Predict the structure.
Amino acid sequence: MVSKPLDLPKREIISFDGNPMNYWGFIRDFEDRFDECVKSRSRFNYLVQYCDGEAKATIVNCALLEPEEDYGGALELPEDAFGQKHIIAHAFIPKMQSIPVIKQTD
């Protein structure tokens, strides 16, 4: 029996702009796509490409590090800035406060 590769649609990665609510989804998608098949220096360049705004500003200076260190450093900085549980929880507060209150008469 000959196996046929699945014709799955190409997954797109949505850019990360620094919104903590989107950090873990972005980083998981990014690592799934690039970690095993791309060299460290190229992974760093792709990471810069897929980040915008505050997220990009957080990692862009990692290009000054040695190639073995730039990608690792570039992953640590946004996790510290956007991926910590308390930062994500704080980002959700305004969203939770905007949910309408359900009254007993509703």
Q: What stands out?
A: The chain has a mean pLDDT of 87.
